Amino acid sequence: MMVNIAELNTGIGKEVSFAFEASAEAMDAVSEGCTFEAPIVVRGKATNTGVCYRLEGIIACRKSFACDRCLEPCTEEQTVEFSEDFRRSGDGGSEDANVFEGDTVDITGMVRDTLLAAQPLSNICKPDCKGLCPVCGANLNHGDCGCERFVPDPRLAALQQWKKDFE
Ligand SMILES: [Zn+2]
Ligand SMILES: [Zn+2]
Predict the structure, then answer these.
(1) Contact indicator for 20, 1 with CB cutoff of 8 Å
(2) Which domain holds residue 53?
(3) Residue 92's pLDDT band (boundaries 50, 70, 90)?
(4) Cα(51) to centroid(ligand 1), Å
């Protein structure tokens, strides 16, 4: 994903738009919790701010995963925004800016990092997913399996046993 910013050299406030499509494999976008289905689409614009080159836009993709609670396969459309400042190497400026050389900015790494950083710690099919029954393994989103899932407090159970023995 190479953005040619040669046009921006003519002045402050100049903009150039860009659009890319790439597979997750080509971008090395590997997440433990999910798979990004091809293609990952990136659209945005680059602006000469006078201090740096700002590249902003959106990353759109569809990811597939197994729900962390009920293990059902799911797909989800995802859109992630980005806005990053780049500087031509040798132009000085802050150390944390992304650096490029010549008139071409490679945003592949930035897009990948932004997409991966936007992933939640757990992927679930819906916010109120009921998960699996710990007794029989049934998917509780499909209805109750009828299992006794109440786990009594062991101290309370001991007390009840003691009372029973006493009677
Ligand atoms: Zn689920
Ligand atoms: Zn059950």
Answers:
(1) yes
(2) 2-128
(3) low
(4) 47
